[in-house]
Design goal:
The structure holds two protein chains of two kinds. Chain A is α+β, with helices and mostly antiparallel strands. Chain A has two domains: about 190 residues, no CATH class; about 200 residues, no CATH class. In chain A, about 55% of the residues lie in helices and about 15% in strands. Chain A has 15 helices and 13 strands. In chain A, the strands form three sheets. Chain A has a six-stranded mixed beta barrel. Chain A has a four-stranded antiparallel sheet with strand order 3-12-1-13, sandwiched between helices. Chain A has a two-stranded antiparallel sheet with strand order 2-11. In chain A, strand 4 and strand 5 form a beta hairpin. The longest helix of chain A is centred in the last third of the chain and has 44 residues. By secondary structure, chain B is α/β, with parallel strands linked by helices. Chain B is about 35% helix and about 30% strand. In chain B, the strands form two sheets. In chain B, strands 6-7-8-3-9-10 form a six-stranded mixed sheet, with helices on both faces. The longest helix of chain B is centred in the C-terminal third of the chain and has 18 residues. The chains are: A alpha+beta, B alpha/beta. At the A-B interface, helix 1, helix 11, helix 12 and helix 15 of A face helix 2 and helix 3 of B. The complex binds adenosine-5'-triphosphate and magnesium ion. The site of magnesium ion has 3 residues of chain B, from helix 1.
């Protein structure tokens, strides 16, 4: 029976005049804003989570203070370096289980006679450090293998690096040689795609080799990854490390030249920014949805007037008030749904556009359009509901018409 | 004595228009027996349509009782009245009152939708009824693509959709020429004779009223004369 009412509603919609469709503009602007907002917001959250949560909630990163957090990979800017002594000190801190130090340096790379300047990251030579870094970054080989003890001039290549992400002329295959600072390194493994752009564009070589070819001090480090012992509160561990490093590096509280990042902290900061943006956009979206709803209510009132006689006819052949009510609610719901469908389309298009613009002009892949099925389904359901709710009063008016009066109406 | 299907007892209908009151019906008595063919005649404004609307549960009296199968319908709420309209009564109007956006077939299936009849059954029954009124070739036409006489035949088919006991026709030939009008009347006669439907028809035409078994004359909202044609 409801199915039949949908058919009646659809048929009524098809016979509508152009102007009643125009009133849906508000709905589709609103829905487009909502879809675009959620899709980008979700996409961004997803990307951020990918980057930071793969580190794991029991791990934290110690870096030299750079002033700016998001200017590049950790340690990429010149600052007071961390040292292997710092790492040793951290290792001694209560609640710390494992530590692993890394160097992340910019280097001259050459492959297939194409020269690029790009980041090269080290893999610790000790077992503990290698395990921690591998786990924290979830390095997995798609082909070949990861670095192992005793490797010298071997390299593991990030997925995008291997697939023309940096060297545009040729893909990197296992066994190929890449020159890093004019020294040949053999590609022994290619990483699985992680979705995290920094990780997909990494070149990993053994720590010793990196120090040697780039002439890095023996004790310098850029990042120290720390894994807290089981059952230890990560924030507590972070405080202990901070205290120990202050002493080791001889700095006063509040003037630290190092930074400790727990994944939660980073997520929280970013989350706050996202929330602000969301609130503004939700404001815009709700205003347009309200306007859209009023537009639908208006066309539904017109429809009730235009179809008063039809309502009388339907009542004379046995339609109850509730039947008329449902038919009109479905019709206004479908009106909202149509507006919503257009809005979903526009919203998806817009956020894809923003994504493309962000990657091409800002060079960030943090902004990703994300279209989960529940977003699309939710937006459509929501727009149907807005339509139906806006049609409630007009539909009620239609339902309560007296059969004789409605029939007499011309 | 036959069972009475609908009985109007001292029915009044008063329309208030500002200060003036229009008494459309003033103590109307009418007893309609099962299977009878009744014609209602009277001058314009005498209350014929008002009376028919009462009989068809489209309107409720200001005063008096309407008994349907011995039940007082003033006790029924709007949805129960709608049920009665849908199941027991078929309407035929002077202006045909088809829904312009729907095809002939869809117009005929409409009353069945509100009774929850399944789609397959609806369509086969509607096709059969349209065949009965000799419109089998025109089932996918919209009302505007049909002549007046054809539209009224669609309306007849629609009135039969839920196989009602009573057919109410308010000047069914009022908008038709005499030739097409008589075709419509022939269908009504057949429904009465062959299917035993109770038929109540309002008409201005004395000649048409002769097909009825009984004619009631209305004036100023009251019966002023009765005539038995049997
Ligand atoms: N909704 C209404 N409001 C006010 N007066 C009404 C209304 N409906 C009917 N009337 C009045 O009630 C009286 C009876 O009207 P009704 O339509 O029943 O007459 P009728 O016999 O069907 O006339 P006709 O032959 O012209 O169709 C008329 O005087 C009419 O003006
Ligand atoms: Mg009349």
């Amino acid at each position: 029976m409801i199915y039949d009412y949908f058919k009646v509603g659809i048929s009524n919609l098809i016979h509508r005049k152009m102007r009643s469709w125009l009133t849906m503009v508000g709905i589709f602007i609103g829905i487009a804003a909502v879809v675009g907002l959620i899709s980008l917001g979700q996409g961004m959250e997803e990307a951020i989570k990918n980057i930071f949560f793969q580190i794991g909630s029991d791990k934290l990163l110690v870096t030299a203070k750079t002033g700016q957090r998001f200017s590049g990979p950790p340690g990429s800017s010149a600052a007071a370096n961390l040292t292997t002594h710092d790492m040793a000190a951290i290792k001694r801190v209560n609640g710390v289980d494992k530590v692993g130090g890394r160097l992340i340096k910019s280097a001259k790379l050459e492959f297939n006679r194409e020269v690029r300047f790009y980041f090269v990251a080290s893999m610790p030579d000790d077992q503990e450090g290698r395990e921690l870094v591998t786990a924290a970054n979830r390095y997995e080989a798609e082909s070949g293998r990861l670095l192992k003890r005793g490797d010298r001039f071997k390299a593991v290549i990030g997925h995008d690096v291997a697939n023309k992400g940096i060297f545009k002329t040729k893909r990197i295959e296992l066994g190929n040689k890449i020159k890093i600072s004019d020294v040949d390194f053999e590609a022994v493994g290619i990483l699985k795609k992680s979705g995290n752009p920094q990780q997909d564009r990494v070149i990993i070589i053994p720590e010793d080799a990196l120090r040697e070819v780039l002439g890095i001090d023996e004790d310098a480090l850029d990042v120290i990854a720390v894994q807290a012992a089981k059952g230890v509160d990560i924030n507590q561990a972070s405080q202990n490390i901070e205290r120990e490093l202050r002493r080791e590096r001889d700095v006063e509280e509040g003037k630290e030249d190092f930074e400790i990042q727990t994944p939660q902290q980073i997520l929280e900061t970013l989350g706050n920014i996202l929330t602000m943006v969301k609130i503004v956009l939700i404001g815009i979206a709700s205003i347009s949805l309200l306007v859209g709803g009023i537009g639908i209510a208006n066309t539904m009132y017109t429809a009730v007037l235009e179809r008063t006689k039809e309502i009388g006819i339907m009542k004379s052949v046995g339609a109850q008030n509730k039947d008329i009510l449902i038919i009109f609610l479905i019709e206004s719901g479908l009106l909202g749904l149509t507006g919503g469908a257009i809005g979903v389309g526009i919203g998806m298009g817009l956020s894809k556009l923003v994504e493309i613009a962000a990657t091409n002009f800002l060079g960030t892949s943090l902004i990703k359009a994300f279209f989960p099925w529940y977003l699309i389904l939710g937006a459509l359901t929501f727009s149907f509901l807005i339509g139906a709710i806006s049609g409630l009063l007009p539909a009620r008016q239609a339902a309560l018409l007296k059969p004789v009066d409605a029939l007499r109406y011309e | 004595m036959k069972r009475s299907v609908i009985r109007l007892e001292n029915v009044w209908k008063v329309y208030k228009m500002g200060d003036t009151h229009v008494n459309a019906l003033q103590g109307l008595h009418l007893d309609i027996k099962e299977g009878e063919f009744l014609a209602i005649m009277g001058p314009s404004g005498s209350g014929k349509s008002t009376a028919v609307n009462m009989i068809g549960c489209l309107d409720v009296p200001t005063k008096g009782r309407i008994m349907l199968d011995q039940h007082d319908i003033s006790r029924l709420d709007e949805s129960e009245l709608a049920q009665i309209r849908g199941r027991k009564i078929g309407f035929i109007f002077q202006q045909f009152n088809l829904i312009p956006t729907l095809t002939a077939l869809e117009n005929v299936t409409l009353p069945m939708i509100f009774q929850g009849t399944g789609e397959g059954e609806r369509i086969s029954r509607a096709k059969k009824l349209l065949g009965l009124v000799e419109l089998g070739e025109r089932i996918y036409h919209k009302p505007t693509e049909l002549s007046g006489g054809q539209q009224q035949r669609v309306a007849i088919a629609r009135s039969l959709a839920n196989d009602p006991e009573v057919i109410l026709a308010d000047e069914p030939t009022g908008n038709l020429d005499s030739k097409t009008g008589s075709i419509v009347i022939d269908f009504l006669k057949r429904l009465h004779k062959a299917d035993g439907k109770t038929i109540i028809m309002v008409t201005h035409d004395a000649a048409l009223s002769r097909v009825a078994e009984r004619v009631e004359f209305l004036k100023d909202g009251k019966i002023v004369k009765s005539l038995n044609n049997k």
